[in-house]
Amino acid sequence: MKLFDVYPLFPIEIVKGKGCKVYDNNGTEYLDLYGGHAVISVGHAHPTYVQAVADQVGKLGFYSNSVINGLQETFAEKLGNACGYPDYSLFLINSGAEATENALKLASFHNGKKKVLAFKKAFHGRTSVAVKVTDSPSYVAPINTGLDVTFLALNDIEGVKKELATGDYTAVIIEGIQGIGGIIEPNIDFLQALRLECTQTNTVLILDEIQSGYGRSGKFFAHQYAGIKADIITVAKGIANGFPFAGVLISPMFKAVHGQLGTTFGGNHLGCAAALAVLNIIEKENLIDNAKQIGDYLLHELKQIPQIKEVRGKGLMIGIDFEQAVKEIRNKLLVEQHVFTGVAGTHTIRLLPPLCLTKEEATEFLLKLKQCL
Ligand SMILES: Cc1ncc(COP(=O)(O)O)c(C=O)c1O
After folding, report:
1. What is the 236 CA–ligand 1 centroid distance (Å)?
2. What is the distance between the alpha carbons of residues 180 and 133, in angstroms, rounded to a whole number?
3. Residue 342 forms beta bridges with which residues?
4. Shortest-distance Cα residue to atom 16 of ligand 1
5. pLDDT tens, 173-230?
6. Residue 370 C-alpha to ligand 1 middle, in angstroms?
7. Which of 22, 153, 269, 331 is most buried by its number of CB atoms within 10 A?
């Protein structure tokens, strides 16, 4: 059997990692400004993380959601306190797309409505409902076409008011910072007005913090820069530093009903141990502050480089726009300078490094980028 060819691959096999460095099967070292697509939060092979996962797998890797899992309860309490939503409940699943699916399902159970408002350039996953609220028609198969979704321009509050006034919408879904769309932030006053409109029209406000959350923006959640609270928040990626794990944070206004949501693997013991280790490391090493400080440094320095058209972002979620397509720069960074970066569209390099990136590593990246330019 061969692999189903859905990914354009770099001809590199990464076999090892340490902190913000990864190594290929020839022993070549790479600086990781991509974090395996925003997934590596506390750094590759962090010793506390490795120990926690190893200890747990030696004890119990998995048992079903039909019995008490104390690790889930410990994790939920710790996450609630860490992220500023201590009174919310947690539903655990395995991936970002599943978080989107469950968030929308819950909204619809709650207010009995069906339509969803999403935003242009949004990405929320590739499964059934998630792909429909993603603004990429080429990812939507005929079988996914059941959901009624309206896409508005980001920050179009008049459009939001007009749509929500119909009373037809179950939810509005919005990324804390659009990632795949090109590191685009919703305006603070837009988010505040959106919050108000959702409350007034009994529409559920879902904040997708799958990429922008977990400290990446320099706050636990990017929407916290606007001082608002969401009704549902989705998290994945950095939550367990690479172990497939995700969560839906749910306001007390939602009623839990047995059987409405469920999963075999979600919240398993091994994932909980990984996710608990991540929260402990983030706290002990002040990684959210580090993301803010190193992010500010990178944003400031990148803005001084004349060949760059625009720099956007917060913390360690940074978009670098060029006049020309970035394919060649990105390839040079990888092949000549041994630096992994991400991309958004054709003209934006996307930085999503581990939150433990040091100032020295950030400076090393800036030097290597300048050499490529
Ligand atoms: C904002 C956002 N939402 C949802 C997803 C989907 O997550 P997953 O790939 O884990 O299904 C992603 C993945 O890139 C994302 O960036």
Report:
1. 8
2. 14
3. 350
4. 211
5. 999 999 999 999 999 999 999 999 999 999 999 999 999 999 999 999 999 999 999 9
6. 31
7. 22
Phi-psi region of 139 (alpha: psi -120 to 50; beta: other; left: phi over 0): alpha
Q: Find the 180 Cα to ligand 1 centroid distance in Å.
A: 9
272 and 301, same domain (yes or no): no
DSSP string covering 178-232, please? Answer: BTTTTSBPPPHHHHHHHHHHHHHTT-EEEEE-TTTTTTTTSSSSGGGGGT---SE
| Closest CA to ligand 1's atom 7 | 96
Q: What spacing in Å lies between the alpha carbon of 51 and ligand 1's midpoint? A: 27
Distance from residue 234's CA to the centre of ligand 1 (Å): 10
Q: Which amino acid is at 14?
A: I
Is 256 in the same domain as 179?
A: yes
| Cα three-residue angle 97-103-107, rounded to 5 degrees | 150
Please identify, by atom number, the ligand 1 atom nearest to the C-alpha of residue 236: 10
The whole domain housing 302 covers 14-46+286-372
Q: What is the pLDDT of residues 311-347, one digit of tens each?
A: 999 999 999 999 999 999 999 999 999 999 999 999 9
User: DSSP for 84-110?
Assistant: T-TTSEEEEESSHHHHHHHHHHHHHHH
Domain boundary among 237, 261, 284: 284
Q: Which amino acid is at 132?
A: K
- Quote the CA–CA distance of 262 and 280 in Å, as a whole number: 27
Pair type for strands 115-119 and 169-175: parallel
Same domain membership, residue 161 and residue 124: yes
Tokens of 142: 């005929």
This prediction's pTM: 0.98
Ligand 1: does its nearest atom lie under 6 Å from the Cβ of 234?
no
